[in-house]
Amino acid sequence: MSVATSMYKAVRHQVSNLGKLKKGIPVAPSPLTSMTLDYDDVELARTWLQDRQSWFDESPVAEFETSFAEWNGSRHAIAFMNGRSALSACIAALNLRPGDEVLVAGYTCVVVPNAFKFAGVVPRYVDIELDTFGIDAGGLERHVSSKTKAILIQHLYGYVCRDFETLLRFAATHDLKIIEDCAHSTGAEFRGVKVGNFGHAAFYSTEQSKVLNTVQGGLAVTNHDWIADGLRKYANSRARQSEDQIDRQLNTLVFNYYRFKHPKRWLLGDYYAVKLGGKRLVTTTPAELEGRKPDCYGCRMVAPVASLGLNQLRKLDAYNDQRRRNSVRWDEWCDKHNVSRPVVLKHSTPICLRYPVLLSAREKADTSWARETLGIELGVWFRTQIHPIESDIPACKRAKEAVLRCVNFPTLF
Ligand SMILES: *Cc1c(COP(=O)(O)O)cnc(C)c1O
User: Which residue is closest in CA terms to ligand 1's atom 14?
Assistant: First the structure.
């Protein structure tokens, strides 16, 4: 974005803030993203911006991988530029081949089916349940053929998916490889074990809207040595991110702190948008929205990002605890408004990245009511079945309903 455009937007925003102040509408509603960033993360990003010669050092990356694996209770963790690249590494390491099929929830992020398609693997979309928004184990059988080689088990919004044990048994019966999508649920537990340790491999995201935030980043984990070898082989075969990308990522972290977290974000967000407007990172490229592989894809994580990841990891348990405690506000809201609370699977501990509920289609279409009456930004994950691209999977009826009605409350404010 040009400086002129950023300035124009900033001025318009401040004028609209004045209008809101007059009407008594909050000018800085609790946002949905970047809430785990603190000033120490900003200082760290600034230190790395001054230390370009160390950007490709290996040791911070190895340290982050070891620390994450230990925290997660996993044997191996390998860090990548984003979660989708970690998924691509899992696909390669599990030897999924062109023409193979994988069962995927028809309610996900476009980068997930993209990762399969880039490897020639065909996603077969299956419907979800409306309690935790995970795959509904009920109708799975008819999607399985001799080509089905894997299942992607997704734990959404920070909750362990409702049919988890049935899905694990189903996969074992049909000899399917299991990949867990833990992008929303880093730290959630089932029977005292963190999710991501129940299948063959799993991936996590450290993108700015997730619980562990480095603006962009991801990890793949496994408890199998042969899969870890495959993950490393994939990682080592990839090019590195450009210095321009790293520079943008570090500046975006600084910007996000002032735009989303700082108490005076209603003002400082605009100041930093003008200052750093031209230096921000695009996390999902136009090519990916069209289903094409971008030029920069599948790369290893670099040192500054790993070092920020380590700093975030130290704070993660405390922030996840806070998310769980804050969810009580929405439990009470649900009870008062006769809305069903999200289901917490028996023997599980969620981390409540967001608090998902089903409201009316009207309340989802225009979320300004939440800003005005609750002082929060209301999340709309997801707005389409393969978010955010236009997609229509008629067989996934409950996913369609969730697209119309599922909204998500922030859990850090
Ligand atoms: C964010 C997300 C991903 C991908 O993570 P990136 O780090 O952005 O590549 C995968 N699955 C789900 C459900 C997500 O929300």
Answer: 183
